């Protein structure tokens, strides 16, 4: 990793120059990536000027170098290791994309078979993990359960906690990818008071999740292949997305040397927020609240009102100022799944399409480049699959686990890695003396 940064530093571009108030000129190299904006390497800024940069939500900050995912927000481009998301969604499958994200190349048939077998054969969790669930209320949000149970995995897998051992990193990575569907399905079963269902290794990854979600001891359950295929595609679309909030959380947690299970639990916690992965659940709640297309103008007005905290859930994105390419694939998949599953006239989908149409013609949304994002359609498909809205973000976390792990692995393998420790602009009191209580 360092070598490519050094190579970039030796680029021919002129350094950027910063003229300080003292008149001093500080110079900083420009680093060029393969695609996307160049960066100004300001690592020496504080040492050479005594000043920090100020970028609270990191809107102009590159926190790392990465080779995993590239996004062009203006063109609506998303590449995983160079492959367009549209091609991966249409031609690949989730476990193959997992291999691609982790290893950097599409697997050969032999690589794929051994990776597939390894993941499928590690889908069970330690039997005692079942006890964690009974400590939660039945009506606990499944994301609360996920944070708790995933964070506790390090208490069971002591043989894959040494982050400096490549083999232990690989074992932990595969365990997390393999066990997330089981843990997620158990969270659902617990919430509805049904017995846990063991994984069936004869089933594919997405199929097995649906089996663990919906099988019952008292009757045969056959996974609908259309649903399984649509879910596999949705998992691909949610697998990784550059340095989003939850991925940055995982990287920051991992930079302290925390074990991968704890880092992924931190990512799950961050993803839960409605501004991030929690938006898919919020979209469904919003559509239900709107209820009828005649009420759409009222909600568009609320979304535009600066004094109203209401946001149009599923719209807008920090990076995409064009259509989120994942939303386009999901929109198409939505139609297919609903038709296949017999929901030909799903009122929520009709309402979503009408909302999308009105919003995209509204000057406010056009000027601010607010387009539907990945969360706008996913919830409608999940609902058609019979998945409750409280589980939507859990599925997002299930899919994103491979992205979090791939980014965490890339950081750990970077010889230049050090603990992340941002600074601040301090605007509090200067030094002052303590006043005893009887004198206040
Ligand atoms: C995900 O980062 C990732 O990659 C995330 C993700 C991933 O795969 O990991 O893509 C997944 O999190 C998708 C986003 C899901 N969230 C939502 O759908 C929630 C609704 N969206 C907004 O909260 C918002 O658009 C964000 C949080 C997604 C983006 O926020 P930004 O980039 O900080 O944008 P902003 O708040 O600065 O908005 C710019 C302007 C503001 O108006 P002004 O202050 O300029 O007048 O647009 C407005 C905002 O008020 N705006 C919206 C809006 N989103 C932004 N107004 C109404 N409805 C919205 N949805």
TrEMBL record:
The keyword Flavoprotein does not apply. Keywords: Transferase, Tricarboxylic acid cycle. Pathway: Carbohydrate metabolism; tricarboxylic acid cycle; isocitrate from oxaloacetate: step 1/2. Coiled coil: none annotated. It catalyses: oxaloacetate + acetyl-CoA + H2O = citrate + CoA + H(+). It comes from the Bacteria. PANTHER family: CITRATE SYNTHASE (PTHR42871). Belongs to the citrate synthase family. This is Citrate synthase. It comes from Candidatus Bealeia paramacronuclearis. The lineage of its organism: Bacteria, Pseudomonadati, Pseudomonadota, Alphaproteobacteria, Holosporales.
